[in-house]
């Protein structure tokens, strides 16, 4: 999946979009700075309101891990396109977020979680880079030859992308079943995770919209910032969790899976709202 992402992403789109450093920088700050701080804030607030803890420790680990992840690629670009936003900027922002996430996510997870089994340090970064970054770089190197094939068969390759995600999610949930996940997590806990995920998304959507207005950007750039800065990648998060949390990836990715569905629904509604604005 990451190999084909590298093979089809045009270098000139990256170069052109990187020139808008304010937009790209704001997106990265939201993904890897503001989002983790919101997660920590909700964690502290919930422990004040609920002294016994609102969620099980492993679920809180999943929520905080979610906050450390990079943005999505495909859905951010697709939603920006639907909303008539700056698509090249979203391509660049989402891709750079995923590449830097290979470095930032393990480091942030180690800082936020303070767990000896969360796998921080150079070894984890190397493991994650081997699984995610190396295929992307190889795809970029062979883009001249493979790129036309990827473009010609993009519909077929979209099925391989989705299929890869399904296999990764299935593997994570299989491990969770073997660990007795569904016997350990009551239905009310799933509802509480969904509420926390919804609150996270609502806060970050509001902050990205406010930041866009504060920066005085065009509406197209505001849309790009809002979608790329507020979304978290299931496709990147599941393989990262399997490396960072080898003994408990199933329960850790549960908040991410719920967040993924919530963000798709909410951001699709938001994109359609933006699409209905009059032409400038």
Automatic annotation (TrEMBL):
Keywords assigned: Membrane, Transmembrane, Transmembrane helix
TM stretches of this protein: 28-50, 62-79, 91-112, 162-182, 194-214, 234-259
Record carries keyword Membrane: yes
Source species, domain of life: Bacteria
KW Transmembrane helix (keyword) present: yes
Signal peptide: none
Stored Pfam families: SBF_like
Family annotation (InterPro entries): Na+/solute_symporter_sf (IPR038770), Put_Na-Bile_cotransptr (IPR016833)
Protein name in the entry: Bile acid/Na+ symporter
């Amino acid at each position: 999946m990451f190999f084909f992402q590298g093979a089809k992403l045009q270098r000139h789109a990256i170069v052109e979009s990187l020139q808008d450093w304010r937009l790209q920088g704001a997106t990265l700050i939201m993904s890897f700075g503001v989002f983790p701080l919101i997660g920590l804030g909700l964690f502290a607030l919930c422990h004040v309101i609920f002294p016994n803890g609102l969620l099980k420790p492993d679920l809180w680990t999943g929520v905080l891990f979610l906050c450390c992840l990079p943005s999505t690629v495909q859905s951010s670009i697709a939603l920006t396109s639907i909303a008539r936003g700056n698509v090249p900027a979203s391509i660049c922002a989402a891709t750079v977020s995923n590449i830097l996430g290979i470095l930032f996510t393990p480091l942030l997870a180690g800082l936020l979680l303070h767990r000896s089994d969360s796998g921080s340090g150079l070894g984890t970064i190397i493991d994650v880079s081997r699984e995610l970054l190396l295929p992307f770089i190889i795809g970029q190197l062979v883009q001249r030859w493979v790129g036309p094939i990827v473009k010609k068969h993009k519909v077929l390759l979209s099925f391989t992308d989705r299929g890869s995600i399904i296999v990764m999610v299935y593997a994570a949930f299989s491990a969770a079943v073997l660990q007795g996940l569904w016997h350990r997590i009551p239905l009310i806990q799933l509802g509480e995770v969904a509420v926390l995920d919804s609150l996270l998304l609502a806060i970050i959507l509001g902050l990205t919209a406010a930041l866009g207005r504060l920066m005085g950007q065009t509406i197209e750039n505001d849309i790009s910032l809002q979608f790329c800065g507020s979304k978290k990648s299931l496709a990147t998060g599941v393989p990262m969790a399997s490396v960072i949390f080898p003994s408990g990836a199933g329960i850790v990715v549960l908040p991410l899976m719920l967040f993924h569905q919530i963000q798709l629904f909410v951001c699709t509604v938001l994109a359609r709202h933006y699409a209905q604005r009059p032409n400038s």
